[in-house]
Amino acid sequence: MCNFAAPDMVGHTGQYEPAVKACTATDMAIGKIKAACEENGYILFITADHGNAEKMYSEQGGPHTAHTNYRVPLIMNNTDLKLACPGDYNAALCDVATTILDAMGIELAPEMTGRSLLAN
């Protein structure tokens, strides 16, 4: 697991150009990780817990420095497994851990309330 905090942290400043640089650097880093995962047969999951850098300005024209509540994607690079999320299903963060454990073939603890987003 890796947290790329730069887009979030820079997004809080409300400064557009630094946010673009942070997103570009994160994109390049994820590209390298994706290549390494594919080379070694690893599954890569990419997601976020909230938005921030996609909305830099408020409706009044000033900097928007708070988290947004837009839906975020769950991306997986594996071609053998498929995500099965109906468009109307509002997945939650608890579904991410459940999905990753399902992909790894690890049994869930009874306390885990999320559902796997993998197609069976």
Automatic annotation (TrEMBL):
GO molecular function: manganese ion binding; phosphoglycerate mutase activity
Taxonomic lineage of the native organism: Eukaryota, Metazoa, Cnidaria, Anthozoa, Octocorallia
Biological-process GO terms, alphabetical: glucose catabolic process
Protein name: 2,3-bisphosphoglycerate-independent phosphoglycerate mutase-like
